[in-house]
User: Fold these one by one.
Assistant:
Number 1:
Amino acid sequence: MILEYGLPPAAFATMRAARLAVEWLSLLKVEMFMPGRSVRLLIPALLTAIFAIGGCANTVPRTMSGTSVADVSAIRSSRLAQNAAIVAGDVDGIARYWTEDVDIRRGLGGFVQGKQAYRQLFADDPHNLFVRTPLTIDVSDAWPLAFESGEWAWHEGSPTAPVIVSGRYSAQWVKRDGRWLIRGEVFTALRCEGVGCTKPAIP
């Protein structure tokens, strides 16, 4: 039996429990080691460890080539590194994973085209934190293309703020000059809490 995330039941259960634990931890503050900072800052590294142990970020077929396995790992690492850049407010670090012609369909329906315009979204409002958790990554054997899907969460105001909107996303990656870059993303808002439920969707 394969679930909607492309994971067998045991792996899916592990992933779900880990994700819920991370969301719970994100509401706490680490005063001893990181005064005034949130556990959210540790999420990219924590997710990397969880996926490495549980194999939940992507179920890799036994017949997948060594090159494909390396590509999946590179894409997953890039996504988690971009998450860390978002938390740090590092706009250049966020943008380095996009192609110049990247386009995005935002969670509530807005459309953004081009690297500069996408970059400006983060520059204008650095307090909005978006975390993307990759669940499946499929690499083409024929073309320098890959497909990623997963879950995303929006925290408003600070890293300690609760999730106000969340849902699913997908992304197309393209390999150029040996690097995997995001060429397109589609986010869909499916759940909301508090003020997130007042955000208008574009019909």
Note: The helical segments are 9-25, 43-54, 66-88, 91-95, 115-124.
Number 2:
Amino acid sequence: MKKEIITIAGANGGGKSSTAKKVAEQLNFKHFSSGDFMRQIAKENNITLEELGKIAEKEDWVDKKIDDYVKQVGSEKKAIIDSRLAFHFIPESFKIYNLISATIYTRILMRCLMFRAQTLRLRLMQTNRKLCLLTLLSR
């Protein structure tokens, strides 16, 4: 059976994963994401994604691990992978570059920032409640 692999590249936050998930569902393909894999690596090493990114700037092991993951996806029969460089490691793939306008990209980033700000605000409120409760209990 011929391999059917689609690679989706594009800017960070540009909808690669969302697009890949929807297409994979429609075609009944397996979905892979190098971003999800990076988050998994960070979790396994008990560090944040940002910390992993800083490590990757200085050490080769992170990129090597991700590259090996992408190459492994290339052995699948029917797969979609969202990754900025997967097309390079799976040259026989059907290649898509997910291009979005600057206006839409800005909206996506603003929603993401608003969500992060709201999440941080909720965490601070929870922390303040715990501190108030501890203060009351310690009296």
Note: The mean pLDDT is 84.
Number 3:
Amino acid sequence: MRSWIIFQMVLLVSASCAFAGDVDSKQSGQTDRAAGTPREDNELKLRLVWCPSGEFVMGSPESEIGPFAPYGKHFENEKQVKVKLTKGFWMGETTVTQSQWKSVMQTGPWSGKMETKEGADYPATDVSLKNAMEFCKKLTDKERASGRIDKTEHYILPTEAQWEYACRAGTKTAYFFGDSSDDLVRHPVLIFG
């Protein structure tokens, strides 16, 4: 069995990092690894957490109407589907910071944007999909050159299924805190914050 380490992208606007490296689970001792086990053994000190293989129902029931649904209706692309992830993977715990992005890309696409705060620990934003993929490739090349990962390992963006599986973290409710959208005010990070 292989494991994956993945970079997360938040709305394809903020860069976030996960490592989807193919690693032999038995060789790397990942067969007994608990969900949420952290690692930071990369040059950027990106904190990655382990997501074991598993099954879940992706999407939401038609009866679930979220606060961002058009005209109070269910999103058509949210139909429920049973998904089985056969490989575990590493997911970035947070978005990639501006200093991490600059370390790899030597650019700051967020610079000068009125709505964006700037600083080493703020998220890298205004990143295109193409640039996010290039970030993953360059980081993979740097990590391979340093010997921290081998030729079968690589940083990638997560699939939609991996992203939702990691976000759900075993829950079956509409939100990690329950089913009521009334509680969103207590959890502003969910409101595009």
Note: Residues 129-146 form the longest helix (18 residues).
Number 4:
Amino acid sequence: GTTFRANFKDYYDKKAILLKKITDTSKTLSDAAQTDANAANNKLADIANDNKLTPSDKQVTKKEWDIIVAEKPTIEAQATTYGITTEKTNYVSAYNTLNTYITPLLADLTTTSDIVGTTFRANFKDYYDKKAILLKKITDTSKTLSDAAQTTASEALSKANISKAITDKFGTTIDGGLIETVIMELREAGSTTITSGISGIQGTDKNLPAFWAGGTYQQALDGAAKAIIYHDGKAKFTDGEFSGTINATSGIVGGFSIGASSLVATSGSNTMALSADLIRFNGQYSEIVFGNNVLPMGANGDAINTPITITVNRPTPNQYVPYGNMGLWIDVTGVKQFDDAGMQYSGNHALYITHGTTVGFRPRVRRVSTSQTLSTLDTVIFCVASSEVITLTLPTNAENGQIYFIKKSTSPNFIVTAVGRDYIMTNSSTKSITVKNKHLIILIYDKVNGLWMFGLANE
């Protein structure tokens, strides 16, 4: 009997393990496919922005197309294996549409082809969308089969163990307050439904349920009962309240993986790590670290100490489209500034530095060649217009203390104009000034009086 049960149990166990592996692999592929699709869509969208497919654009597009062509037989075979028809048909249709559209464009990789950017993006997006839907269907279907196989295996094991308990040669003995038995199942009053139990059967690996509640013995074997304590000391609870000391060096809590001395949470390319000496956030293109001393390894050893580092290294996806990387975004508003002595703390301070210097200060430099209104995010302006007099209009929403350094290094002159209630203060207040070639001027805004204080740095 033991051999009979063991052979069937081994088959069902191995079947459940294999199907779970298939499910996990399918889900990994499905998640990766969605990530890859998002990246590819973004890349191809940049390519199609100018409605031109240049030779370099074609090389990038062909690389994506070659991947699509190579993966199609495998995806179709998986869909056929699981008997998936509707999602497979939609996927093949999207592939055929993209094939018809892209093949002529890639016939000659040395010339530039005119395209309609929206059509280009739509065909690729439709393919990736249909692919993601099909892979999700494959994952869901394989999980359903895996769950069914696990249920079948657990049902077989449950029946075998209960049969073993019923036919146990020692039976159940009661000696005073001592009861010895193999399995004890408890049920609801007036019902045959099993709600909890105790089992002395450890299993080959000594990891079967010893105590369970909130389910049948089969559900305990499935791991679906509400509370389970296993023979190897492990436990599983759907919910609970715990007090006292909890020690853990592995496992997952709230999405964080427990390590010997840290917690780590991961979502796609994003990671957060928490330990006694630091908190670190990592992304695909950025990292921020807080801690006692988080200077990168090899950066002057112990000579420099810093509790915060911020790193951003996102490359420009398309050199013809404006992008920006920022290490820190600060927006502080809400209170009134007082100019009284001792009240320097009043106002809205993006940085409040009581001691220390600023090292490596570099304001952004912008080169302008046409008349325009300056931004409150400008600081250093180089006028590079070579043939016409341009007018730079000062903004009406400048913050108190806004500073501009404006330099003209070529002829002709340029004009700076204040608008609204604002004036420029030179020897007297005026609405505009003309700045000669090669002069560097400095303007500092007094918001209380609506005056731009003017200074000439050089002749």
Note: The mean pLDDT is 85.
